[in-house]
Amino acid sequence: MGLGSEVKTSSFKSDFLEKCSGCAVLDGGFATELERHGADLNDPLWSAKCLVSSHLVRRVHLDYLDAGANIIITASYQATIQGFGAKGFSKEEAKPLVRKSVEIAIEAREIYYDKCTKGSWAFVDTGKPSRHPVLVAASVGSYEAYLADGSEYSGNYGDAVTLETLKDFHRERVQILANSGADLIAFVTTPNKLEAKAYAELLEEEAIDIPAWFTFASKDGINVVSGDSIFECASIANACKQVVAVGINCTPPRFIQGLISSIRKVTSKPIVIYPNSGETYDGQSKQWIPSSVRVDEEFAEIVIEKWREAGASLFGGCCRITPNTIRAISKALSNKSFAVNIA
Predict the structure, then answer these.
(1) Among 208, 291, 319, 323, which one is most buried in terms of CB atoms within 10 A?
(2) Do 15 and 3 form a contact (C-beta atoms < 8 A)?
(3) Which residues make up the binding site for Zn(2+) (predicted)?
C-alpha cells in the first residue's frame, strides 16, 4: 500500500503540505513528454498506450521527480476498462494495466528515493542528494476522454448521458486505482458539474478511503468548459468529505488567478493549480495552436507568487509543461516557507 492511510482528508494540509513548507509542486505534461522521448501516441489510448511497455512512463516520472515534484500523477488519464476493451483487451487483461499505472509511479518514487539522481536541482544546489516528500496521485480522466476526440474540452454530454451513466463508467476503474497503492485520486479536467457530482457520489458509495482532488478545465476564466459555473462545480467538490483539494488544470494561464479567487470564495480547502502551456488544443486536428502567452521557466517564476497570494498552495503543469518549468516552480518555492492555513 502507499501512504493513503497517512494522508487522510483531515491531515493533508497539516501533514503533507506542512512537510512541503506550505506549498507543494506537482509534475507537468505527461503525454507530451512521452512524445518527446519518442512515443507515438496517435492512438485512442493516448498516454495509456505506454502502460503496455512501461519504461518511458517510468522515465517521465523520474524526470519530474528530479525536477522537484512532490506529487506525480499516473498515466491513467485515458486508461479505462472500456478503452482497453475497444483495443481488443479483455477485462481481465485491462484491469492489471490500470493498476500498473500506479505501480510504475510507485516504482519511480522508490528509484528516486534510493538514488536521488544527480539531475535533481537539489543535488546540484546543495552538493548532496535531497529527498523531498512524494505522493502518487492516480489520474482519472472524464467520461469522454476515452473517446479520444477532444470532447472533454466541451463537456456537452447530451441527454443520453445521465448521472448513473457516469458513475457506472467510472466505478470499476476508481475501485482499482483506490486499491493499487496510490496516495490519492486526482479527478482531472472535469468538464461539467454532472461529472463532478458523479465523482462525489461514487467516492461515498464505494467508501473510497484515500483522499481525492477535483480539478476543472475552463476556457473563459469564469465557467468550466461546459458553461457550468465554477462556483457550482467547486461547491460540489467542497461538500465531498473525501476531497482534500479543489482546483484547475488544462486551462490557459491567463485565466488562473481569477479562477483561484472564484474557488476560494466557496472552499477553504487547498487549491491545486496546473495550467497548460497557454496553447490551445484542437481536438479534431489533434494539433496545438500557438499562444502569445506561453508558460516557460521565466513566466513560472513570475506568476507562482501571484497565484500563491491569490490562495493556491499546490502548483504544477498540464499539457506541454516540461520538467524544466517544474524545476523553475520548485526553485521559486524552495527558499520560501508558507504558513499552512488549517480550516
Answers:
(1) 323
(2) no
(3) 250, 318-319
DSSP state of 26: B
Q: How many helices (H) and strands (E) does the chain have?
A: 12, 10
Q: Grid coordinates in use for 57? A: 512512463
Taken in order of first residue, the domains within the chain and their CATH numbers are 3-338 (3.20.20.330)
Determine contact, residues 280/288, Cβ cutoff 8 Å. Answer: yes
What's the grid cell of residue 68? 522537484
Selection from 52, 65, 162 nearest residue 105 by Cα: 65
Q: Any bridge partners for residue 280, and if so which?
A: 289
* Pair 157, 144: CB distance under 8 Å: yes
* Binding-site entries for Zn(2+): 250, 318-319
> Residues annotated in the binding site, as ranges?
250, 318-319
- Burial of 221 by CB count in 10 Å (0-12 exposed, 13-18 middle, 19+ buried)? middle
State how far the Cα of 62 lies from the Cα of 113, in Å rounded to an integer: 10
Q: Which residue has the cell 470532447?
A: 151
Phi, psi of 119 (to 5 degrees): -70, -15
Alpha-carbon gap, residue 323 to 46, rounded angstroms: 20
Give tens-digit pLDDT for 75-114.
Answer: 998 889 998 888 888 999 899 999 999 999 999 999 999 8
Task: Identify whether the C-beta of residue 24 lies closer than 8 Å to the C-beta of residue 71.
Answer: yes
Lay out the sheet containing 212-216: strands in order across.
24-25, 312-315, 271-274, 243-249, 212-216, 184-190, 135-140, 71-73
- Please, how many CA atoms are within 13 Å of residue 54, restricted to the half-sphere of its CB? 20
Place of cell 483539494: 245
pTM score: 0.88
Please say whether the beta carbons of 223 and 257 come within 8 A. Answer: no
